[in-house]
Amino acid sequence: MEKIHLIAEHSGERIDRFLSGNLEALSRSYIQKLLKESRILVNNNTVKANYKILKGDQIDIQIPEPEILDIRPENIPLDILYEDDDILIVNKPKGMVVHPSPGHYNHTLVNAVLYHCGDRLSGINGVLRPGIVHRIDMDTTGSLLICKNDHAHQILAEQLKDHSITRKYQAVVYGNLKADSGTVDAPIGRHPIDRKKMSTKSLHGKRAVTHFTVLERFGNYTYIECTLETGRTHQIRVHMASVGHPILGDTVYGPARCPFRLQGQTLHAKTLGFVHPSTGEYMEFDAPLPEYFSALLDKLRQSGSTR
């Protein structure tokens, strides 16, 4: 059983939100499960998920041994960018959910990884997310990191928390950005009305920073690269929409109708870099653009680039 000890540095935040923000390897739903099971104590007392922390609170977390997985391995081909005894880097295709969830218990990346790795996966993030350190949306493509043991998972989760992992995305957005580069620094939290969406207008948003650079201009659209300083849910999608340039194809945060035949947002996790958990060496991986993305760029270039 793994044990984690934390000291609250500020007051007023719900404990489940505080822990999910400080322990990115653990999902908020899993933290709530641990709270219900009295595996999280504050000053040696049990608390509920809505407990608001006080500065100086002593928080002790007990993470139980992984349960026996009931998620079925599936022989789904993986586009493997790199693999060793500690980690697996895959290029996730569009339309694939990362881990099982209500309505998506089969044909997920986890089902494919279970078939490929067997029992050689970390168990820190619970039964439904073996090996999963970070996620990308169903219709986002590109580089994703999987951990094969708890040691690697803990080290890489700490790098995520410290924002030291390199994560660069490429996207096509609506409109012609005025600046060649810039930064969106706006907190992100649950949308105050639509709980399925994220928003920069949330009362309990967490700091979120996205740096963008223009790669190519097409008049009504702009091809950009985004570098994540933080990693909030839907961060790039929400940030670009908040500055008036939603991602092409994103019908959640952008126009309901897309002028091109696309399956969701035009967003690709291209570059992933981190310090290897065993060798201590910095490694960087690049996922090639998917065919649909390259075809879209060719179509936009034919219509006339104004780079």
3D structure, described in words:
The protein has 3 domains: 2-63, Structural Genomics Hypothetical 15.5 Kd Protein In mrcA-pckA Intergenic Region, Chain A (Roll); 80-156, Pseudouridine synthase (2-Layer Sandwich), CATH 3.30.2350.10; 166-270 and 291-302, Pseudouridine synthase (2-Layer Sandwich). It has 307 residues and is an alpha+beta fold. It is built from 6 helices and 15 strands. Helix 1 packs across helix 2. Helices cover 19% and strands 27% of the residues. The mean pLDDT is 91.
Compact summary:
With 307 residues, the protein is an alpha+beta fold. Helices cover 19% and strands 27% of the residues. It starts with a strand and ends in a 5-residue tail after the last helix.
Q: Mean pLDDT across all residues, rounded?
A: 91
CATH architecture assignment of the largest domain = 2-Layer Sandwich
Structural class: alpha+beta
Oligomer: single chain
Give the number of helices. 6
**End-to-end gap:** 55 Å
CATH class of the largest domain: Alpha Beta
Strand content: 25-35%
Instruction: Summarize the biggest pleated sheet.
Output: 9 strands, mixed
Order of helices and strands: EHHEEEEEHEHEEEEEEHEEH
Helical residue percent band: 10-25%
Spatial shape: globular
The CATH homology group name of the largest domain: Pseudouridine synthase
Number of structurally distinct domains: 3
Taking pLDDT < 50 over at least 5 consecutive residues as the criterion, the unreliable ranges are none
Radius of gyration: 20 Å
CATH topology group of the largest domain: Pseudouridine synthase
Number of strands: 15
